[in-house]
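Quick one:
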Amino acid sequence: MTRGRRLTGLLVVSSLALALSGCSPELERGFLPDAAGVTNHTDRIIGLWTTSWIVLLAVGFAAWGLMAWALIVYRRRRGETGMPQQLRYNMPIEALFTAIPLVLVLGFFAFTARDMAAIEAKVENPDVRIEVIGKQWSWDFNYVDENVFDSGIQAQFTGTEENVMETLPTLYLPVGQSVQIELSSRDVIHSFWVVDFLYKKDMFPGQTNVMYFTPLKEGTYVGKCAELCGEYHSMMLFNVKVVSQSEYDDRMAELAAKGNVGQLSGEYDRNQNLPGGNPEIRG
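Output:
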């Protein structure tokens, strides 16, 4: 078998393997978590991500194909010596190499801007308002409408526990209700990230960021800080439980019965010398 036939066979086998692997659910969602339908934003995010990969892979296959074609067609033949003919200043090809990346960048920008505008759109009258406060290395949750709070400590990994995730601070959300979450920090920069929500937002001292979403699927989801914030950053974990309205009301009543009435305020912030008084709120 000639070298050219072997190379052609290898390309065919590789293409078939890639095409067959494309049938897997993992590849269809671009190896993101299985988060379809978890919130009103996750399907949009998965669509943007996977479409981007499809376009980039198509461009990659075109480039790899042209490279393989050039390597085979213009390889040095037996008995040939010297340098091959040199070509310079091919304006059509150079224009093509400029136009294609420009179109791709503009397209990615336009679709990303469209989806970011939808994800960041303000909900005027959210059903639930919650303040999430990051601190080294755990979380405080203020349930504003119910006037109760919950405060947590960092994950306690001793090497002997079996259900450490059950001991983490847990944020409760009612399924199917629009949620406004105000994010701030008591000390350094943190980042609020619920993995299966496919979205994260930073938390800054002296500033309040806001995110809006509607949880659509009941379940327990893993949350963590996504910004390196000190020695025990890896232990700054929490859970999110999306539950029915009745379970959510029961949890609020449970917190009130425990005496967690009122709201945790900035008096516990480590940075008490920030200028401007009240934190700035940004949507």
